[in-house]
């Protein structure tokens, strides 16, 4: 075997798809989706773009692989023996936290819902709904309600975080919104004004789980 061929094969062996995906996740987390280019990735991995194309077809394929890797970590962390409701809450919170850390994941899940990441979420939640005794005819609606709530809330929180500079203090921001609500006309916005205290002091994760519990309580009525 020629020396150049041996060098090429060693480079392919050392540059695994896992290494490429890990480096892509680092770039995405630090600088966002627009910063992820094969040139930037090749520079970080100290290789040529051609070596990366050996493992991934294009940027879309790379984004999907990175999302699959993040969601796979969530699923691995699940406890197999959990009671169905507890398992659904664990999946929901795991995805919520993953999107909180990796804000680009939410958009990617909706972009290619046929990829393993989205399919794993749907399958895991659907399986737990079946274990709860949900009838077949209600499985699609109930599963869709949970999945869309999870991804919608998590994605919105991630979008809110991107809109504000890292230096913006969350408590101070919520306090300023609460102050504005408190000044509203009580005749026109009586309910909004009553929510001021909760808005000022609420915890995003706790509120998110409260929504999951409300959906699960509704699902209970179908059983």
What would your notes on this structure say?
This protein has 223 residues and is mainly alpha-helical. It folds into two domains: 1-56, Homeodomain-like (Arc Repressor Mutant, subunit A, Orthogonal Bundle); 80-222, Orthogonal Bundle (Tetracycline Repressor, domain 2). Helix content is 76%, strand content 0%. The chain is built from 13 helices and no strands. Helix 8 (116-131) crosses helix 9. Residues 3-13 have low confidence and may be disordered.
Layout of secondary structure:
Blueprint: H1 3-14, H2 17-31, H3 38-45, H4 49-53, H5 59-76, H6 84-101, H7 105-111, H8 116-131, H9 136-163, H10 170-182, H11 190-194, H12 196-201, H13 204-222
Helix pairs in contact: 2-5, 5-6, 5-8, 6-8, 6-9, 6-13, 7-9, 8-9, 9-13
Helix content: over 70%
Strand content: under 5%
Backbone structural class:
mainly alpha
Number of helices: 13
Q: What is the CATH homology-level superfamily of the largest domain?
A: Tetracycline Repressor, domain 2
Which CATH-level-2 architecture of the largest domain? Answer: Orthogonal Bundle
Q: Looking at the structure, what is the overall shape? A: flat
H-E order: HHHHHHHHHHHHH
Considering the chains and any ligands shown, give keywords for the structure.
single chain, 223 residues, Arc Repressor Mutant, subunit A, Tetracycline Repressor, domain 2, 0% strand
């Amino acid at each position: 075997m020629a020396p150049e061929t041996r060098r090429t094969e060693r480079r392919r062996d050392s540059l695994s798809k896992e290494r490429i995906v890990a480096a892509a996740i680092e770039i995405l987390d630090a600088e966002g989706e627009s910063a992820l280019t094969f040139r930037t990735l090749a520079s970080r991995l100290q290789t040529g773009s051609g070596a990366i194309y050996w493992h991934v077809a294009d940027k879309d394929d790379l984004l999907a692989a990175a999302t699959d890797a993040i969601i796979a970590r969530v699923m691995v962390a699940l406890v197999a023996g959990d009671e169905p409701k507890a398992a659904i809450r664990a999946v929901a919170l795991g995805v919520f936290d993953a999107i909180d850390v990796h804000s680009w994941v939410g958009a990617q899940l909706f972009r290619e819902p046929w990829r393993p990441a989205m399919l794993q979420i749907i399958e895991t939640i659907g399986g737990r709904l079946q274990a709860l005794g949900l009838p077949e005819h209600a499985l699609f609606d109930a599963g869709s309600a949970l999945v869309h709530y999870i991804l919608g809330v998590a994605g919105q929180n991630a979008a809110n975080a991107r809109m504000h500079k890292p230096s913006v203090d969350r408590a101070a921001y919520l306090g300023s919104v609460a102050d504005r609500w408190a000044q509203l006309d009580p005749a026109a916005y009586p309910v909004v004004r009553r929510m001021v205290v909760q808005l000022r002091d609420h915890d995003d994760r706790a509120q998110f789980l409260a929504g999951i519990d409300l959906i699960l309580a509704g699902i209970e009525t179908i059983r």
